[in-house]
Amino acid sequence: xxxxxxxxxxxxxxxxxxxxxxxxxxxxxxxxxxxxxxxxxxxxxxxxxxxxxxxxxxxxxxxxxxxxxxxxxxxxxxxxxxxxxxxxxxxxxxxxxxxxxxxxxxxxxxxxxxxxxxxxxxxxxxxxxxxxxxxxxxxxxxxxxxxxxxxxxxxxxxxxxxxxxxxxxxxxxxxxxxxxxxxxxxxxxxxxxxxxxxxxxxxxxxxxxxxxxxxxxxxxxxxxxxxxxxxxxxxxxxxxxxxxxxxxxxxxxxxxxxxxxxxxxxxxxxxxxxxxxxxxxxxxxxxxxxxxxxxxxxxxxxxxxxxxxxxxxxxxxxxxxxxxxxxxxxxxxxxxxxxxxxxxxxxxxxxxxxxxxxxxxxxxxxxxxxxxxxxxxxxxxxxxxxxxxxxxxxxxxxxxxxxxxxxxxxxxxxxxxxxxxxxxxxxxxxxxxxxxxxxxxxxxxxxxxxxxxxxxxxxxxxxxxxxxxxxxxxxxxxxxxxxxxxxxxxxxxxxxxxxxxxxxxxxxxxxxxxxxxxxxxxxxxxxxxxxxxxxxxxxxxxxxxxxxxxxxxxxxxxxxxxxxxxxxxxxxxxxxxxxxxxxxxxxxxxxxxxxxxxxxxxxxxxxxxxxxxxxxxxxxxxxxxxxxxxxxxxxxxxxxx
Length: 641
Known about the structure:
The structure is a single chain. By secondary structure, the chain is an alpha+beta fold. The protein has 4 domains: about 5-280, BirA Bifunctional Protein, domain 2, CATH 3.30.930; about 285-395, no CATH class; about 410-480, no CATH class; about 490-640, Threonyl-tRNA Synthetase, Chain A, domain 2, CATH 3.30.980. Helix content is about 40%, strand content about 20%. The chain is built from 20 helices and 17 strands. The strands form 3 sheets. Strands 1, 2, 3, 4, 5, 6, 7, 8, 9 and 10 form a 10-stranded mixed sheet that branches. A hairpin with a 4-residue loop joins β11 (about 515-520) and β12. The longest helix has 29 residues, at about 375-405. The protein is globular, with a radius of gyration of 27 Å.
């Protein structure tokens, strides 16, 4: 069964059960400066899980595009990918466990056709310290579902993943209790890690048994949460029941369901093959690589998987207007493509073939993701340009590598090392990697060619320098993105509304060609990218400042109107960007002065102040600069001194 078919079956199944099907949000979260990518299906829906009403109602379903940058180095096995789709459905205070678990099980068995004998589930064993009970209700539901299919329904106590590896599974066991490290979900992880005000709850995960032989490297015995590859998690129903308070955990006023199921993994289960790269969503690229390289997939799984995953991830990111660069999201597009080039070279794939691989990805997905069709030329051009640029970087890196030969050294004061040959200083290797973009593995290859020893001691020193470098970068990112997921603190809300006024002022003074091209808002400042071909002079920036401050001074109202996206898109009074990221019904925010003057009317997902007098401080533009070709960037603050 194809992945495209399973996606469609799932959305139709949930729609039949009263769910409104909403479009996937973009890979770059809107109005969320705290995270680079949409990394889970629930991320775009956090405000609604926290209590905000969704315009499409209390039952929602989608297939959400996701990207997890932290998995780049994990790609190469049979199940890790950086880009993936998460099938999702949500109950916002509507149904709960009694509906959710039977629905998903029925979908897997009747719609996808999975063998009930190969389905196993896990549930939450409870947490005495947090005063959260065992999830016996889910166990009872699962027992009934399994019994109805004539399969075993034995229940087992597993505890932690490690304990499960010691205990193993017994005949007839199908339902397994695990602790909070495996069957509790919150954005902060386990209950003890949750801050006051955070929501979370127990979950029930579904695993598919591929029946492969257990690898004892992952524990003495196999069990559903074992990482040996026999079992693959294909879905997780999170029951958002609890709020962390100063006094402990309290039940939420409404109980929500947050379900996520991996489309690639469910498709792999449907095809009875644990290798997700053999499914139809990925296999066309594998076949193309075989033809271009003259090699077989079975002969080099890692290289084929890395190239395939990284090309797909780059296509989807560029399709969401993220171009290769050295900063933020663009850095990861660049990293994907450059890593893919190295593996492609190892397979002997001719230079310049990446756009053709990208075409295979687009052809596979464009029926569901129309933006890939619209961005086809941009995607292929950007990928071709990045490959060409990287090859120039490699040439330059080789020249820099040769320069370092003049500073070859030996470990000072180490007689044993002095007898082992010539060494490169770790500082030189670090500079090659970080400054000149020379891949680590290529440093090692070139060193071997020249008879240069790079032993464990050398790499340990290099790793220490890289770790220090990454820690500094991470600290900077945490400062930049601090505030928590989907930060809606008071100051962020003030800045968000001010940004609408600033865009209106930009369009007033520069022209209606100006539209938003991206934003990043924290509690300390706003950063805003907009379409404009040339530098904005300080005199004009001063006029924009005055216009915004005068609007704020009127103390007018900010009102919200929900309307069909098609209506908003065809209304000339409504300003908007990134229309494809929004659901069929959208929110339009209107900012009106007390004299009735409409300052701004703009499509947005919120949040905003209700009155302009709630914006504290004087709007000041600190900097205006180029962001990219045809795009300018403003950095501004609400000054209180």
